Amino acid sequence: MKLQHHLGGLENLGPVDYEPRVFVENWEQRIFGIHVAMMGLSSHLADARPEYPIDEVPTTFSSTWTWADLRKGAEAMNPFAYFQYRYYEKWLGGISSFFISQGYVSEEELADRAADYLQDPARPLPAGGDREIDNQVVRYLREGDSPRREPARPPAFAVGDRVTVTNVPPGEHTRLPGNLRGRTGTVERVFEGNYAYFCSTGADGIGDPMPVYAVRFEPADIWGELAEPDAVLYGELYQAYLTPATEEIR
Question: Rounded mean pLDDT of 196-200?
Answer without folding.
Answer: 87
